[in-house]
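Entry 14. Structure prediction run on the chain below.
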Amino acid sequence: MTRRTQRVGSLLRDTLGRLILTELSDPRIDPARTSVIRVEVPEDLLTAKVFVSVLGDDALRSKTLRALRHATGHIQEILGKRLALKHTPRLTFEFDKNFQETLEIYQVIEDAMQEIRDKDSARWGDAQGDPADPTDTQ
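Output returned:
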């Protein structure tokens, strides 16, 4: 990616994020759960692949992606009016699988840490007695 494509991608990401948050009125798109993660733009700047993340189950993700794809023409029209680009890139929306995988890995780590904390508290609680248990005569 060149500096130019990075700047255009960043501009598109910021603008699309604000647009989803404040201007799209499709009830299938929950702006609080939908984020534009990154935008990939080729050298010719004619297309842009928009990677989104939707917090929720698979049904919500699919519904949101369908709604974004359905609103692509309207979104491109708004971008054309707002951005000072010679051509408005043709948008395609996709899920950012990397972001979803990161969330899943984080959840596995969080579950493992909770299990370790539970085992430690059980081990130390058994070895020293539970201070909240008045029947413990240690």
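The beta strands are 34-40, 47-54, 90-95.
Filed with the rest of this week's runs.
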